[in-house]
Amino acid sequence: MKLFYIGIIQNESKPGVELCAEKDLNAYSRFTRANYGEFMTVFAKTVAERTRPGQRQDVEQQDYTFHAYGRTEGVCGIIISDQQYPALVAHQLLSKVMDEFLAAHPRSSWSASGLTMPELKDYLAKYQDPHQADSIMKIQRELDETKITLHKTIESVLQRGEKIDDLVAKSDGLSNQSKMFYQQAKKQNSCCVLM
Fold this sequence. Notes:
53% of the residues lie in helices and 18% in strands. It is built from five helices and five strands. The chain has helices spanning 33-49, 87-104, 119-126, 130-133, 135-190, and strands spanning 3-10, 17-23, 56-61, 64-70, 75-82. Strand 4 (64-70) and strand 5 form a beta hairpin. The longest helix has 56 residues, at 135-190. The chain is rod-shaped, with a radius of gyration of 34 Å. The relative contact order is 0.12.
């Protein structure tokens, strides 16, 4: 599970304008990073242009999923991830990023070039592991781990119970054999009289 891109694109008119974005291209070689970065920017603009205000959508392209959230203010948030990344976490992050962007940058500042949002880099790093970033997924993972531990404990208790049952059966068998031995020894010894 990996995030590659978080960006905010003005999508009121075509072509869309990338207002600010952060990319993680470390997975690609130095020679292809620029091409992948350009692909992400162009495709993010295309998805943003096709996302209506108030709409959330996920678009799959090759090995990537583009998570989009169009706002009525005329901007669209885009996250590009691999296909294994949970859509719920991506859309929670998009909501958070869009709210922070709109609070920090009023509509009048969008025409100015060089809008920055340093939080995007932090979010890109933090949300690489969705289990750590999303509290629900974190709790679910902890519950799964607890459930596995509990199953192992129950299995070991059951195995101990089976072993105890085997020991009880063996001790009952030994007790019966010792009674039989005692009775046979008594019979054998009764024929012999000591004088």
